[in-house]
Write the structure tokens for this entry.
Amino acid sequence: MLLREGIFFSAVSMSMILGCGIASNTSEGKQTNTGGTATGSFASGGTGGTSTGSSFASGGTGGAAQGQGSGQGSGGALAATGPDGFPAVCVNSRPLIPGEREPVAFSLKLELNGKPLIYGENNALAGGGTLLLSNLRFYISEVNLVDASNQRVPVDLVDSGGHRKPYNVQFVNAEAPESLGLRVRAPVGTYSGVEFLLGLTDGCNNTFLPLDPPLDEASQLKWPHTFGYLFLRYEGMVTEPLTIMPSTAQMVHMGGGIHERMAPKISVLGAITVAKANAEIPLKFALDEVLKGAAMPADLANFMLPPPAPPGPPGAEILAGEHLRQNVPKLTIFSLSGP
Amino acid sequence: MLAKTQPVHFRNWQPALGFLVFACSATPDTVNLEPTPNLTEVSSPFGFSGSLASTAPADNQLTESRAKLGRRLFFETALSRTREVSCSSCHEQSHAFADPRPVSVGVEGKMGKRNAPGLANLAWVRTGLFWDGRVASLEEQTGKPIEDANEMDLPLSEAVARLNSDASYVAEFQAAYAEPPSELSLRQALASFVRTLVSSNSRYDAFLTGDSFALSDSEQRGSDLFFSSRTGCFHCHTERTLTNDGFFNNGSYEPGGDIGRKGVTGRTGDLGKFRVPGLRNIALTAPYLHDGSLPTLSDVIDHYAKGGRGDPSTDVQIEPFELNAAEKSDLLAFLGALTDQKFLTDPKYIER
């Protein structure tokens, strides 16, 4: 299809219209999780911090950008990094990272206050009352394992057949249990943790042209204003205990900006062993931490939606999302633990 | 027209980008100029993922013979027990293949439960069909109305027997599926035709693909309202496909009413949820909502402006808003710009 041709034009157009070099803000976090208990905190890299993300140039040879036009599959193009330190272009398909690797399956466990979080049902709140979860979706991308010498080892996200997932992105949807299985291919060895973006790379977030699933509008994470995505979307309804008052809506829509306000980096520490045969590794996701972050203080003095922005002020859910995004480094949203 | 002043705001970025893409692309879409265009030769609307052919399952690849057979079956009254009604009885092309009646009327005047929705661009639906998403594919969906007691009320086995008694059908099935009519190939052929019902020629589509002047000033203002946090329409009706392919409770549920998606999943939170329809040709698919309870688009806007009918099950994103008369007029104008006149009159969809 005509307009599916050429991510090249997207980049050119973006440069022409928005101008490159808009202030970038790379957030970098550390999360400590030892002994299966999330105990750590993040240290933010702050404004203008240097990204420590791996170049991900490995495996970046050849591999045409499927569905994204020609000319973007070269190793050189993939090696180029955006302001977040990750590939500047959003590539649907490229070869798996070479070398002998074994499949490892992380199993996302959605939780609320340490108990399983059930989509579409009332979940008990810590202080009484219930939360009816009606929507929870987010992206995970650019997964690394961290080896014993604290070096990042890029890994491919793959499907059950071992094929690289489109855009190397995991689309998590609480309504779809199959989306909670996060498979990667990694070299045999022992690792001290896993890192990833809670969201998309700047390259994918800034793509103008329509992309294939899971980066299409059906993800319910696509901004309606041409550019950009929500990195995480949550909607629920809280009913207070012992009251006849109506339920209260909760919404958190965490997004990014164009060449700014990058997806927060998640670093989860914990022993991970990759062998010839691997057991499923539980990876907990704590919604209560998300809600806590959305209510924590944040600097919104200069917050504005990126151009082209929707008319009118951003909704409260967007502001809540920005609170969350800024506070992710202080939270323990993800943690490793035993089964 | 060309001298028209365009307000400077975000929506004007998009045509500029579209122009660049058009201007620089090496392989423009081909335009089929044949007197009777093939059903399957159609480009995907901008923003829809994948070619039309790619939306078909491996065991029912899209071919012209299958789509044309499906078109004949779509108008075939012999697929109803009394030979009164066909698929087209409730899906009229002039209404974008929707039913202008609140609920459909089947054999012997039997009334259905829900409004028959428009059929445009269903090829790209991935989350389940019917208002409650109870079937996974077009191939599964197309057999249901034939058997439904309130619609065509004919067992598929009997439908197949009728088709096998008609030599011309047997020949067409042989050509399309290399076998005589069967329940599977009947459903597959109908699915193939429905898959070709592609709408992508509204003025909004032209705007999306680079025509800065496709929308009037009023429509442009309406678009801005539609995609604003103030009305929140875009939460469900996304920019390009005009549906997020999901199921939401839009505030139409009332106690004791149609439970919608909950009837499929059993989940508490799915009470009153229904499929989010795409909005191309929405001005012609009245009445609205799953039950056809709102006669006009003006009523629909009023419904959302009120925040729905008030049941606590209403989605959290349905929040009341206020529009003045001019703004409402603009919003209606924008919805009118989603009409694809070519789709409504395209001869390739007509019975033959």
